[in-house]
Structures are given as structure tokens and as C-alpha cells.
Amino acid sequence: MPTSSFVVPERYRYQNGFNSYHESEAVEGALPVGANSPQKPPLGLYAEKLSGTAFTAPRAENQQSWLYRILPSSAHAPFEMRESSTYNTNPETKPHEKIYHIPNQLRWDPFDLDETVDWVHSLHLVAGAGDPTMKQGVGIFIFAAGKDMDPHEAFYSADGDFLIVPQHGVLDVQTELGKLLVRPNEICVIPRGIRYRVTLPEGPVRGYILELYQGHFQLPELGPIGSNCLANARDFQAPVAHFEEDTATEWHIMGKFAGHLFAARQTHTPFDVAAWHGLYYPYKYDLGRFSTIGSVSFDHPDPSIYTVLTAQSDHPGTAVADFVIFPPRWLVQEDTFRPPWYHRNTMSEFMGLIHGQYDAKEGGGFKPAGASLHNTMTAHGPDAITHEKASNAELKPAKVGEGSMAFMFESCLMVGVTEWGLKKCKKVQEDYNSESWEPLKPHFRRPAKGKSQNGA
């Protein structure tokens, strides 16, 4: 069955469909009929519009939702800066830290779990490009948390959409629009501005985040593939409405705004949405449902064939961000070097490993919870051990990646590495090149005179 086998069973219900118009009510009759903002919404609720795009964005791109809640989000005290000297995740406005743009291949050992912090304080920017204040670029984060968020705190990012890739542990995410349970081998996307709270029902968590500062994630075009395969729209899951009644408890709403942390006090829960409808909502996806496409004759296809979600630049076909996975799959190509070929790419490639062993890196240095970065035009490819094995393998049908799931955040932007990512985390492998590619040996031999090569 094309689904992941999860240790922790599902606990919530969902609505299915990517970029589908959903509606949900936790109390019968909470959704108005025919109108979005009647003079008196049903059940004494307030109507609030949540806009993920400009009002006048083209219909095919427009993402808006209507929320029907006990009190509107505006009912709070002024936001004040929190932890101003220590909390800054904006890659372009760090007055005391540098962003390093490096042509070297980089690889990190597994990042440490940190049981002392909650979700908000576990976010570490490893690399990024652009500026959230201009709504341009991406940020790449590691999260590692060991504590639930405070029972009366919620968080949102005004900077961009969070694409969350858990590697260890389980995230129970309570959002304004409903609840999501997110486990390793699942991803979730929480769009810009949506408020949520993260608890850890199975203990410490760790994983990766791609924050998209511009636009929103979409399914890639399928071209000659046709109408199905890769990530199918029906397999994405959105929450159903769930709300709480609390208008007497002090809550703190924390917002990541231009990379800095702000907080506002209010005397009601932000999770009071009794009903909603629209196109702007959080969602999750089981990577085990990805329908892989590959070559059945010769040559290794471009890794774009494994794209789950994409965010295009203003030049179609060139992505500000792609989320690409390398799932278990069959290789059957004849007379072909089956792992990814050696290459230099105009795109920057940040890779992570959720579990198992990535089939193009068998030397042992690329481990679950670790990462690698091959920046714009930085040469890379299979390590020497993998090249030797693949060059001499018997080319019979073989399944690779069983029990494994590697992924890639790919961007057309030149990605800079933060002080934390390069130095403070103390995870950069200094011997990455010497282990991976320096052992490669020349095999070139001049042909004997009069003998043809390649049929010439």
C-alpha cells in the first residue's frame, strides 16, 4: 500500500486535496450561507478574512480564507520586541554576525537534540538568501526541541511559509484552522501568518524547515507525464475546524517579523475559530504516497523528476524553492551509471536525510539528521566508494533506497551560510572533500591506433 508505516497512529481527521477550496465547521450552523461577512454572523461569531495573497491576485493564484471566531485576532495589546539581542533569523540584517558565501562543498554531522527549548527557541537559521522584508528569497532552518510550547502561547511567522520536515519525534500542531499530527516521513506547510502551537507527544523532536519568503508552494507542472504521478493532489490533508472557548486567560502571541521575535498579550485564546472556508490553510503530506517516475531504458533523469512542491520565480521553470525527495524506487536502466552523475548546477542544493542511507552517498558521512550544501556552480556527485561500486555493478533491476528517505531544498539563489551554521553548531565536516572526491582516480587510457571508440 503506498503509504508510510507510522509508529505513532493518526489522531485527527482531515480534508483531502491540494489547493482545493475547503470549508469546515466545528459547530453546526457556524458557517454563513451565501455571504462571507453578514451583518451578524451566525452564533455571535466575528468574521475575519485571512489573506495569503493580494486581493487582486489572479484567480488561479489567489489564496484567501474566511474565519469565524469568538474574538478577532486584532484584540490584543501592542506587540513588543522579545529577546532583541539574541533572537534574529533574518539572514541579511545581522549586525554582529556574518553571512558566508562559500563555493566549497559543505556537509554537517547530525545536529544535536536540545531538550531545554521549545519550538520557538529551537529554530536555528543554517543558510539563506534574500530578505523577508522584501518578500524575496528563502531561509533554511534546523529545529531541535525538547519542550512543549507554553499552554498559553502561540507563534506565527510573518516572514514566510514554513515547510517543515520532521526527522525525529512527533509534532502535534494546533493551528487556528485545526490540528495536524506530523511524523517523520510526513511534511507540513504552515502558511505565512497562521498562528499555531507545537507540543511534543513523543518527546524531543528534530528536523528541517524551508521558509519561503516569496509566493507559496505549488505542485510542479507534469508536462508529458500527464495528469497523475509525483505528488497527487488528493493525498494532501488539511485540518478540520477545532476551537476552544477561553476569553478569560492571558495568552501571549509571538510573531517572527523581519527575523526578530515580537510578543503581544491578549485575554483570549487564538484558537477560537469555530468555522472557516477558503484556499489559505495549513496542510500535511505523507511522503510514502509519492508516485515516483524514472527511466526504463537508459540514462539517469534529472532530479527534478522527484519534485514534491515548488515555488517558481518570475521565470517559469526556475524555482526560488523546490522540495525534492529521493524515495525507495526501482532502477532498471541499461548501460547506465545509475547514481546521480557528477555535475555543477546553477541551482543551490541543500540536502538532508530523514532516515536510512542515501544511495548516492555510501561512504558513511551523510547521516540521518545531518545535511549537505552544494552551492551555485559547486561541483559534486557520488563519493569515490559509490562511484567504484556503481561503475562495476551488474545492471539488473534493483531497488534502491529501501528504508531510506533523503530530500533536497533546491533554489536558484546563491545561498549564504550563517555564523551558527558554519561555526557555532560545530557540526561542519572538515574532511568532506578528502573523504568523498579526493580519492577518485583517473581511468583514462588512450586508444590503440586504428581501434574505434564508441562506434566511431
Structural class: mainly beta
CATH topology of the domain at 289-436: Jelly Rolls
Number of E-state strands: 28
Strand order of the largest sheet: 1-16-20-13-10-15-8-7-28
Strand portion: 25-35%
Q: Gap between N and C termini, in Å?
A: 48 Å
CATH superfamily of the domain at 289-436: Jelly Rolls
Residue-averaged pLDDT, rounded? 94
Shape: globular
The number of helical runs is: 3
The major β-sheet equals: 9 strands, antiparallel
Write the layout of secondary structure elements.
Elements: E1 14-16, E2 22-25, E3 46-51, E4 64-69, E5 80-82, E6 106-108, E7 124-131, E8 136-145, E9 153-157, E10 161-168, E11 171-175, E12 178-182, E13 186-190, E14 196-199, E15 205-212, E16 236-239, E17 251-257, E18 260-266, E19 273-278, E20 283-286, E21 307-312, E22 319-326, E23 329-331, E24 348-355, E25 371-374, H1 384-391, E26 398-400, E27 405-411, E28 416-417, H2 419-424, H3 432-436
Parallel strand pairs: 9-17
Antiparallel strand pairs: 1-16, 2-19, 3-4, 4-19, 5-18, 6-25, 7-8, 7-28, 8-15, 10-13, 10-15, 11-12, 11-14, 13-20, 16-20, 17-18, 21-22, 22-27, 23-26, 24-25, 24-27
